Amino acid sequence: MSAFVLAAVLLGAFFHASWNAIVKAQRDRSIASEVVGMFAGLFGLPIMIALPLPAAESWPYLVASALIHVGYFALVGFAYRSADLGVAYPLTRGSAPLLTAIAALFLIGESPQWSGWLAIVIIASGILTLSLDALMRGGLTRHAAFAVMTNALVIVSYTLVDGIGSRKAGDSLVYTAWLTALTALAVFCISYAIRRQKLLIEAKKIWLPALGGGALLISSYGIALWAMTRAPIGLVAALRETSVLFAMLMGMYFFREPFGKRRLLAVILIVTGIVVLKLPAH
After folding, report:
1. Percent share of the chain, pLDDT over 70
2. Cβ of 262: how many Cβ atoms within 10 Å?
3. Which of 44-58, 101-115, 148-162 has the weakest average pLDDT?
4. Which residues of 24-46 are buried (b: 16+ CB within 10 A; e: fewer)?
5. Burial level of 258, CB count in 10 A (0-12/13-18/19+)?
6. In angstroms, rounded to a whole number, what is the distance separating the alpha carbons of residues 234 and 225?
7. Among candidates 2, 67, 3, 72, which has minimal Cα distance to 34?
8. Mean pLDDT along residues 173-193
9. Burial class of residue 76, CB neighbours in 10 A (0-12, 13-18, 19+)
10. 96 vs 17 pLDDT, higher one
11. Is the pLDDT of residue 139 over 70?
12. CA within 20 to 30 Å of 110's CA: 29, 75, 200, 204, which one?
């Protein structure tokens, strides 16, 4: 992985943690998560108009991913209703990197070199250490834990689908635009059908932070999909989950969440994994 791709994915990780923090800061986090997803679709519209359609081979992946993302936004909002950002976020993201790399190996035969595997394991260990710390500190209900674990599997699913789909589309920017627009449409239709008036009222209240969250969301995922066309999917997925570091810092600063020895160990592991990514392969 080149230094430019690495830096871009880290920036995307920061964006990802930021939009999650915006959702956490709202009164109704379930609706906030969905509204952020809807606004992200608006930013994709100019790209859809300006650029050609994605290749036909990518359309099944676009549709599948849009439906998967509906579940993702619902689970994000549900988890944040009953758990801290510093608890729900690392638990959700914790197991995804290693599972994604293993799934990519068996499903599409894509494997990083030895330094890539080592980096994935170290980064995943750091993220899981953060998750363990979050779990031991409490603040996680049984229902939130179920949402968190389910969403980890959802993340693996859409990462693989979009990693392949963006390559088949011929242009990751076009794929990202169409994906966010289709997801926004699906989220709106389902949410409006279920809670119509409440959705519109809450959207009017939070439109400004949700608009910012939508811009961060599409930027974050667009960077990730672009990176997946230039580096192994498992490697990008692992590096992207360093967003838990940014979420931890935001949780400390904005939500007054504590920092302890286990979190320090987790930081050291994740930074070590990032360094290992730059080791020569031979």
Report:
1. 87
2. 16
3. 101-115
4. bbbebbbbbbbbbbbbbbebbee
5. exposed
6. 12
7. 72
8. 92
9. buried
10. 17
11. no
12. 75
Owner of token pair 């930027």: 219
Q: Is the pTM of this model over 0.85?
A: no
Q: Give the N- to C-terminal CA distance of the chain in Å, as an integer.
A: 14
Token readout for 206 is: 């939070």
Q: What does each C-alpha distance from 14 to 3, 118, 208, 216 come to in angstroms?
A: 17, 23, 20, 9
